[in-house]
Design brief:
This protein is about 40% helix and about 15% strand. By secondary structure, it is α+β, with helices and mostly antiparallel strands. The protein folds into two domains: about 1-45; about 50-119, no CATH class. A hairpin with a 7-residue loop joins strand 1 (about 50-55) and strand 2. Helix 1 packs antiparallel against helix 2 (about 30-45). It is globular, with a radius of gyration of 16 Å. The two termini are about 25 Å apart.
């Protein structure tokens, strides 16, 4: 696990944020998110990535609905569908939801020799 960023990596991150937020470029918010996440995915050698906004149901713990998704890098529709199913599971949302920002690896949900495992 990398605990320090190189000066070059920090410069790349600053450039990514500057490019994605440049007010002189006509690009809607989903396009800006895509630009930023594609750069970060390349920086960290991610296979796939997803940025979503969700609505939490305050009356039912773990009840979350994604309302806006920007993503890329899927091996196919089946993989994307598996992740969407995982993200809609109440147990997943109880663990990672609740309005907090969480970074995780797909390895957190993989069993050796299997596809994405349910929580």
């Amino acid at each position: 696990m990398v605990t320090e960023l190189s000066v070059e990596d920090v410069a790349r991150i600053v450039r990514l944020v500057a490019d994605a937020s440049d007010p002189t470029v006509e690009l809607l918010l989903p396009g800006r998110k895509r630009m930023l996440l594609e750069g970060i995915a390349e920086l960290v050698s991610a296979d796939m990535w997803m940025w979503n906004m969700s609505i939490l149901n305050p009356e039912l713990v773990g009840d979350v609905v994604a309302t806006n998704v920007v993503d890329d890098g899927w091996q196919g529709d089946q993989e994307k569908s598996q992740v969407a199913d995982l993200l809609s599971q109440p147990k997943f949302n109880q663990r990672f939801g609740g309005g907090s920002w969480t970074l995780f690896s797909a390895n957190d949900f993989l069993r050796p020799g299997q596809d994405l495992a349910p929580c």
